[in-house]
Amino acid sequence: MNLISPNFPEAGEPNIAIKLFPDGDSYMRIHEMAACQGEDVILFHRLYPKQNSAIFNTAQMLHTLKRVGARVTLVAPYLPYARQDKTFLMGEALSAQVLCKLFNDFGAVRLVTLDCHFLKKEGESEYANLKILNISANKLLVEHARKKIGLEPIEVISPDQGANYLVTEFGGKSMSKVRGDYEKSNGAEAYRTVEKVEREFDVTGKNVLILDDMISTGGTMLKAVENVRKGGAKKVICAATHGFFLNDSLAKLRKSADAIFTTNSIPNDAAEVDIMPLLKSALEGNEAPAQESPANPQ
Ligand code: R5P
User: Fold this and answer.
1) What is the rounded CA–CA span in Å between residue 170 and residue 208?
2) Which of 174, 215, 223, 242 has most ligand 1 atoms within 8 Å of its beta carbon, as the pocket-test mutant?
3) Region of 95 on the Ramachandran plot (φ > 0 left; ψ -120 to 50 alpha; else beta)
4) For 176-234, how does the pLDDT look when each residue is reduced to its tens digit (9 = 90+)?
5) 75 contacts 43 by C-beta, under 8 angstroms
6) I need a labelling partner for 246 at 20 to 30 A (CA). Which of 39, 218, 278, 288 fits?
7) Average pLDDT of the chain?
8) pTM for the structure as a whole
9) Which residue has the least CA distance to atom 13 on ligand 1?
10) DSSP 18-76
11) Rg (CA), the chain
12) How high is the pLDDT of residue 296?
């Protein structure tokens, strides 16, 4: 049984209603509830944009399905809060753990996601008791870049060590990123600026694909492009699995790079690679791991 949120129309006709009550409280209804009773359910629901309300909607969906004994695989192509798996200052929340624990507690049998920031490898894992299937879009992104560049060779590199797992199978190397501290961000925003991106390998005269798991403010990618341009790179292509493009960064990157694109894990103006074939093949014949999920009338 497939359940499809209105925010995931690529997966099919939505069969869940999400609305707001007049005071802003979330209303959620699964139309085909009877068909979910005691069944394996694949729930397609994006967790971005508006991540906090999307997460609350997920809790509503999981709780509703648990009440009829459904075994739910949550398919959420981008996992928000995944960059908060470590603390830098005492007292900070480990939000990645909070979210995975929440999904597990509310009865998700498994999460299927793409290039989850804290996992840094493909395949099955467990985090805060939540079983996660992490799929990488790296091959699709590299294939797409190669189509753009034609027959010329291309070096696949990552802008920091954390994204190294995306490039190793293409013989790629990684730059190093140095972030500043929170003090430099303003007011209510918590952000550690990217101070520099450094490189210890040669890119002179080469076509370069800079591949990352996500482009958020664009700070990392802009510094990485600047670095390889100074290093004498020929053509520079930027790609990432997830594209937020905050702070007008898509326009800035379009000026500085020869091409820029992402998948449609988060819909955006540079989404050129469709994730659905990747998700479908990962889900086909892929039974959810066994786990008790008794009906709970609470
Ligand atoms: C973090 O290390 C990630 O892999 C990305 O490099 C980072 O989140 C991109 O963020 P931004 O676009 O704000 O630099």
Assistant:
1) 12
2) 215
3) alpha
4) 999 888 766 667 888 888 999 999 999 999 999 999 999 999 999 999 999 999 999 99
5) yes
6) 278
7) 94
8) 0.94
9) 217
10) EEE-TTS-EEEEETT-GGGTTSEEEEE----SSHHHHHHHHHHHHHHHHTTT-EEEEE-
11) 20
12) 38
For residue 117, the ligand 1 atom closest to its alpha carbon is 4
Where does ligand 1 bind, in terms of residues with CB under 6 Å?
83, 160, 162-163, 194, 212-221
Q: Which two tokens stand for residue 288?
A: 């959810």
Residue 4 CA to residue 234 CA, distance in Å, equals: 44
Q: Alpha-carbon distance 202 to 220, whole Å?
A: 19
Please enumerate, as own/partner, the contacts of 23-32 that have beta carbons within 8 Å and a separation of 24 or more.
26/53, 26/56, 26/57, 26/60, 28/57, 28/60, 28/61, 28/64, 30/3, 30/61, 30/64, 30/65, 32/1, 32/3
Whether the per-residue pLDDT at 291 is higher than 60: the answer is: no
CA 79 distance to own-chain centroid: 5
293 closest CA partner among 164, 105, 146: 105
Cα of 127 vs its chain's centroid, Å? 16
- Distance between Cα 39 and ligand 1 center (Å): 38
Distance between CA atoms of 106 and 76, rounded to whole angstroms? 15
C-alpha count within 13 angstroms, C-beta hemisphere, residue 274:
8
The whole-number pLDDT of residue 35 equals: 97
